[in-house]
Amino acid sequence: MQVRKGSMMKSIILTAAVFVAVAAFFPRGAAAVGTPAGTAIANQATATYQDASANSFTALSNTTTVTVLPVYSVVITNPADQSVPSNTVAYYAYTLTNTGNATNTFNLSALSAPPGWVVTLYADDGAGGGTANDGVHQAGETTVIAATGALAADATYRFFMGVAVPAGTANGTTDVTTLTVTGTGDAGAADDTTDAVTTTAQAPALTVAKDVRNVTAGGGFGVAANATPTQILEYRVVVTNGGSVAATNVVLSDPINANTGFIVGSAVFNAGTSGLTGATPQYSNDSGATWTYVPASGGCAAPAGADYCVTNIRWTTTGSMASGGTTFNNLFQVRVK
Amino acid sequence: MSKIKGKEDVKMRTVGTALAVLLVLVAAVPAARAQSGEKPELVLTLSAQKEAAVKGPDGKATTKWQDVKTGNPGDVIRYTIAYRNGGKTEARDATIVDPVPKGTTYIPGSAAGEGAEITFSLDGKSFQAPPQLKYRVRQPDGSEAELLASPDMYTHIRWTLLKPVPSGGTGTVSFKVKVR
Fold first, then answer.
1. Which pTM does this prediction carry?
2. Residue ranges making up the domain that contains B67
């Protein structure tokens, strides 16, 4: 056991020695920034020599000292462009690195090109219980900033540029926002930089197409149909979401032409590819002021099956209508007066 | 086989140096006293210089090595060691050693010195010509590998003067570094 213990210790010592040697070499080239400003690079040469009697002597040179001057530079990351729904904020996560060899403070500003959306810079400080410096914006991180504060050489500063897309912005609207970093260490541009990102608004974009067919005479749907009094027409309303985000609370309303009368019970909702979970038809007998009317056969002196009191019909859908060109449709029938 | 032989040579040389140091400690002091005035005396003058743009006598832009006290990261600094034997007898077996200063990296091929054999070291103790400068690392699998040292790993430069420096004799050796 003793022997084994001894050999183990030997191997540990050997390993340590190798690691020391490697560690001594790697720091030489690994630093991202140069030698810190103010470092004194000292040098002194030594000579050894002998005389004729083999007496040895040593001579030292003078010492030279070269002091390292400050060099100012900066690097920022370039986050990818974002597309976000209208009425939300696109948060661009930036990491600024002081690549100079001296402490420096960087002023930060951001400008949105027309349409000029509101841009605000926030610290990645983990305020409100979030994680600091994680590049993920949390709701509590609302500390507005305009500078990095004093940043040591090689140190990094993380922040967000928030670009607020106004409510109601049309789908596909873009905004170019430019971040400007201005170092205070150097009067020139050596420690200045910029980055521009393009933010694209996402919104649902619904289009409505309506066509009609003559049920009594037969025939397919078209943009127009001929009919004589007492014939039954069927209207079809197709709604398409060509936008880039889903639509919710979709309500479709349609007036009943005064020369026609609503056929009781004819309202049909087809969810199609929309993903909507349902739709409730509602009726108005006062041109849309109220939606509590319940159609009844013979209403307002209509023939049996029709209700001439109905002035408007609407569908209040439930669920979410997916983006990407999905459709749903509604059908209803009327009797030509 | 040749590798092992090389290592033995190094060991022997190291031992030899250690012995010499001991001899100096024991014997040199009284000997120097006895021969006061008759000994060699090398005087070393070290200068740190940077190449700067200047206007020549003809008005044309040119560059000149000038003494510097400050530098930026990336600057090239040339260290020149001028030696002179100010003693009355010749200096034999003279070697000049200069560390590559902390905060700088040796520029490959920049060491110069007429009549001197130039060797390098990774630790300031054993000196070798570049092809023999190797270091060992432990690899992830536990085995050791011997790798050729790159010039940025050099820590010391040694000039071994091939001829004795006579009384009044002078010479220069130099090398360049880059400020990290």
1. 0.66
2. 3-126+155-179
